[in-house]
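Researcher: Here's the sequence for the chain we discussed earlier.
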Amino acid sequence: MKRQEFEKLNVFGLGNPNDAFAKYFSGQSYINMLAKTDNGIGFMNVTFEPGCRNNWHIHKAKSGGGQVLICTAGYGYYEEEGKEVQKLSPGDIVVIPANVKHWHGARPDSWFSHIAIEIPGEETENVWLEPVIDEEYINL
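Model: Thanks. This is the structure I predict for it:
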């Protein structure tokens, strides 16, 4: 999917380059903060250029925690360690439990956006790990 076509479908907007977390991504990503509740639940639209994906990571929590992804535009992937890759399309929802190693991002030929919702919990921490290996990603 070409950028011009994608931007017509990306109703929550591209946002700004995700420079603060660029070292945890292969490729360019963008962040558009949509809302934050009084109890700390944040809603962010994250956009990935074609081929962009984040490193393996874990949303650690003593209790509660985790993340929810609501796919809004384009096409992407989600993978939990030891499981098959899921192909993501607009309307798909991924519930990521706390303490599960995973990654997500765009397919090589498509832009991709999802709303990321961080679930509050006790002693939460996002732990960034190794990049997704190019050879494994290309062969999905």
